[in-house]
């Protein structure tokens, strides 16, 4: 399917056995031992780290950047992969936590699930409602964040969270606590997260250099390796724990288009850019362009970038 100048977005899932065959089973916390780091750009400045809880301004700036983002179609393949592997029956209660504009929720609804879309941004929730209406579906988003889901314990048969957990500005354990809390015993939790290696990981690291999160708050790439996520999930008694390595294949007309769209598509990067004075913002744009140039590969009618991510599925213990 063509989206104006976007040529294609697809995914390639790799099974657990395939993941082992690729030699990617054990990823270090940075996730870069399997592939050489390619974002070896000079640090723009020595960041002055803040301490304590993330400031409201940081949360607000990220939230505003997500609301302004019109590039979520870039991640459609990851939503398809997450929903396609979900283990539920038609009519079961499914939560899409951090629903954004409805990529995951609408796919679940089309499969016959009774879907609740939970999204902190009222604007994005309205966008999801509009998308649902255009597809002949009814979706009434609930306003709320992954930090404290507004539902009683065991409210759902299954909970899905596509890429959103990475951007909660809290520990993975805190987010996982909420996802497992709202799922009934025996129900499943599924989520996806960008790997810390690859172009998206590189861009998120770049954002963190220009606009660091507080030193005692995990950044997005705390979710960026299988080893780390396995350690985080096991205390919740997750059963049938499964990891898949998948890849979003992005196509652009040229490197300039890729750099501009990716800069807008990732809230930490967009928020950092909007915060900076003109000269520093220009330097950031140049570094984004340099990263894109390093990762870009020739593709029909333009260039391609391959962005690896993990899909994680677990079942809450029945007792």
Question: Can you describe this structure?
Answer:
The chain has helices at 16-21, 56-68, 76-84, 103-110, 122-134, 172-181, 198-210, 226-233, 255-265, 267-275, 278-295, and strands at 9-14, 93-97, 114-118, 156-162, 183-194, 239-252, 297-299, 302-315. The chain has 319 residues and is α/β, with parallel strands linked by helices. The chain has a single domain, classed as 3-Layer(aba) Sandwich (Rossmann fold), CATH 3.40.50. Strands 1, 2, 3, 4, 5, 6, 7 and 8 form an eight-stranded mixed sheet that branches. The longest helix has 18 residues, at 278-295.
Structural class: alpha/beta
Q: Mean pLDDT, nearest integer? A: 84
CATH domain class name: Alpha Beta
By CATH, the topology is Rossmann fold
Shape label: globular
Rg calc: 19 Å
Per DSSP, what share of the residues sits in E-state strands of 2 or more residues? 15-25%
Please bin the fraction of helical residues: 25-40%
H-E order:
EHHHEHEHEHEHHEHHHEE
Uncertain runs are 1-51
List the defining traits of the structure above.
single chain; alpha/beta; Rossmann fold; 8-stranded mixed beta sheet; 11 helices
Short overview:
By secondary structure, the protein is of the alpha/beta class.
Topology:
Blueprint: E1 9-14, H1 16-21, H2 56-68, H3 76-84, E2 93-97, H4 103-110, E3 114-118, H5 122-134, E4 156-162, H6 172-181, E5 183-194, H7 198-210, H8 226-233, E6 239-252, H9 255-265, H10 267-275, H11 278-295, E7 297-299, E8 302-315
Parallel strand pairs: 2-3, 2-4, 4-5
Antiparallel strand pairs: 1-6, 5-8, 6-8, 7-8
Helix pairs in contact: 2-10, 3-4, 7-10, 7-11, 9-11, 10-11
């Amino acid at each position: 399917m063509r989206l104006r100048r976007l040529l294609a977005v697809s995914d390639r899932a790799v099974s657990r056995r395939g993941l082992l065959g690729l030699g990617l089973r054990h990823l270090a916390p940075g996730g870069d031992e399997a592939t050489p780091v390619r974002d070896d750009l000079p640090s723009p400045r020595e960041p002055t780290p803040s301490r304590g809880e993330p400031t409201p301004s940081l949360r607000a700036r990220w939230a505003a950047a997500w609301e302004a983002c019109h590039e979520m179609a870039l991640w459609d393949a990851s939503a398809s992969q997450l929903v396609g592997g979900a283990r539920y029956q038609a009519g079961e209660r499914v939560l899409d936590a951090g629903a954004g504009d409805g990529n995951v929720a609408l796919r679940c609804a089309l499969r016959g699930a009774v879907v609740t879309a939970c999204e902190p941004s009222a604007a994005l929730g309205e966008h999801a409602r509009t998308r649902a209406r255009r597809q002949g579906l009814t979706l009434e988003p609930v306003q709320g964040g992954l930090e404290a889901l507004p539902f009683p314990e065991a409210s759902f048969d299954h909970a899905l969270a596509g890429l959103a957990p990475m951007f909660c500005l809290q520990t993975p354990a805190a987010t996982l606590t909420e996802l497992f809390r709202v799922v009934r015993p025996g129900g499943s939790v599924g989520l996806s997260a960008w790997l810390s290696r690859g172009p998206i990981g590189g861009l998120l690291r770049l954002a963190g250099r220009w606009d660091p999160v507080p030193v005692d708050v995990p950044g997005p790439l705390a979710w960026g390796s299988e080893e780390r996520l396995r350690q985080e999930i096991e205390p919740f008694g997750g059963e049938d724990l499964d990891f898949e390595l998948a890849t979003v294949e992005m196509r652009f007309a040229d490197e300039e288009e890729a750099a501009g769209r990716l800069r807008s598509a990732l809230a930490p990067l967009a928020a950092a850019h909007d915060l900076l004075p003109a000269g520093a913002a220009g330097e950031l744009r140049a570094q984004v362009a340099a990263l894109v140039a390093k990762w870009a590969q020739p593709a029909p009618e333009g260039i391609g970038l391959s962005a690896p991510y993990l899909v994680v599925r677990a079942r809450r213990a029945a007792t």
